Amino acid sequence: MAIRAEYKKHIKVGGKGINIAKHIKMKVPGSLGKIAYATALGRWESEAHWANFWYQSGTSRRELLIESLMGRTNSEIRAIKEAFSDKRYNDSLVKCMETELKKDKFRNAVLLALEEKKMEENAPISNDLIRRDVFDLHKALTSNEGGETAMINIVVVRNDTHMREVLRFYEATYRKNFAREMIQKSRNLVVRPVLSIPPFPEADIAYQGETLAHILNGVLNRPVRDAMLLHQALAETSKDRAELLISRLVRFHWEPKHLERVKVEYKRKYNVKIEHDVEDTTKREFGSFCERLLLGGDQ
């Protein structure tokens, strides 16, 4: 942020100081311009950008929205909302989502996340609430119709520690894997094919990146999930989907400790360093920028 302020002091366009991110967007084309712009926005404004970008893209992908907002803490959601800027919606991310998302359960899940009502990570464990959530989730899964709203109202607002206990207790009680059962139930919430979600506590989870499944994969093992997200993004970079790789690299760049854990899991799973795959998959200045982001950064 200090660099952005200093840049605006010294660089003028039409006699006025210009934001470095905006200047990059004006002057640098292609994937290099996109990744430089997202990085210049900073941690939270870049997340607000992806939340607002997904429906504008010709290759519209819900992953951009899901990964920017779902599974976040209240303080992170608040920071993203404060960083959001779009005069069409009076700089309100909530208003943007209310306007752009069609009225369905996916929209309900996103708006619930934006309410900042998630259980705080330091909240004490409540065995009664765990048992009640397990009962309600099982009821939702076994009902003939509906059930998705009940699952949303639990998975979106519970913290990771609580959800890990819920998953553990669910399997101990019903001898079934909740995540796998949930995917079968919620085809309108989970629209991509899911390869495998093994029983808890195993963490070798296949990427699907959609709504509740994205949250649960993060609950089970966030570094593994994110290593798989990077691998999938690299595989699709040549298909006019560079935004997936850009958004994920920029996001992990701002969490250097987490990025290091992601690198370890990537090497463990694919038997190659992420840096090597990035070098082999990306080209020229864009590739060099991607490699630099893998060095991590400060908030």
Termini separation (Å)? 10 Å
Mean of pLDDT? 85
Task: State the strand order across the main sheet.
Answer: 1-2
Describe the global form.
globular
Characterize the main sheet.
Answer: 2 strands, antiparallel
What is the H-and-E element order? HEEHHHHHHHHHHHHHHHH
Give a structural overview.
The model is unreliable at 190-209 (pLDDT under 50). The protein has a two-stranded antiparallel sheet. By secondary structure, it is mainly alpha-helical. Helices cover 65% and strands 1% of the residues. The protein contains 17 helices and two strands. Helix 3 runs parallel beside helix 14 (242-253) and helix 9 packs across helix 11 (160-174).
Main traits of this protein?
mainly alpha; 17 helices; 65% helix; 299 residues
Provide a compact summary of the structure.
With 299 residues, this protein is an all-alpha fold. 65% of the residues lie in helices and 1% in strands.
Helices, strands, pairings?
Blueprint: H1 2-10, E1 12-13, E2 16-17, H2 20-27, H3 30-41, H4 43-53, H5 62-69, H6 74-83, H7 93-100, H8 105-113, H9 127-142, H10 148-155, H11 160-174, H12 178-185, H13 211-236, H14 242-253, H15 256-270, H16 274-281, H17 284-293
Antiparallel strand pairs: 1-2
Helix pairs in contact: 2-3, 3-4, 3-14, 3-17, 4-5, 4-6, 8-10, 9-10, 9-11, 11-13, 13-14, 13-15, 13-16, 16-17
